[in-house]
C-alpha cells in the first residue's frame, strides 16, 4: 500500500450512492501522487480500537440521505469544515454543492482547506481559485484519452491522432472509467464530449487539466457551432477557459480545425 504524503486532509463522508463513493475513493487514491493527499476519515477501524485523536478536517455530507438528518440532530461539530451536497444545507455549511457533483470543484474546496490550514486561517472562509500543482511523469509513449465520444467522432480522432504518431488511445464512457484512466496513465491529449448527459464532461476536462497541465485539452459541443445562439456560444467559450480547455470544437467535428489543433502535438 502506498504511503500517504506528509500533508493529508482527512474527510468524513456521510451518505452518497455507491457510484459517487467509488468516484470519491478514486479521487482520494489519485491524490496520493501529489504533494497533498485527501483520505477518508474513519472514527473506528474495528471493535475496541480507539478513535483517532485528531478529528476530521472536512465533513462531506449527502443532504439526501437519512444519515444527514441524524447528523444535524446530533449537532454537527464546529471544528471541521462542512461541505454539503444537495438541498437542505444547514447555516454552518461552508460550501454547498449541487448534483451532479463537479468533482474538480470539490477538489478545489479541499485544496482551500489545506491552504487555510497552512496559512493559519482555519477559521476564515479562504477562497483558493488556483489549483495545486500535481507532479505528473512524462509519458514514455504519447497517449491520448477520448471521453464520451460518438463512434463517428471517435473514428475521426483515431485517424487524425495516428497522423501525429499517437496510436495509444484510451476511451472512456463513464466518469469512473475516465478518472481511473487519468490516474493510471500520462496523456498528451484529451478530448471530451461536453454535451453527454450521462456524465459531467466539464468536470472531467477540468480534472484532466489539473492532472495533465501540459496536455492538449479539447472539448466538443453542439453549442459551439454556428446554429447555436450567440449568447450560448459566448457562455460555452467562457466556461472552456475557466476549466482549462484549449480548443472548443463544434459537432460534427470540422476536420480542418481539428487537424490544426492536433498539429500542435
From TrEMBL:
SUPFAM superfamilies: CheY-like (SSF52172). It comes from the Bacteria. InterPro entries: CheY-like_superfamily. This is Response regulator.
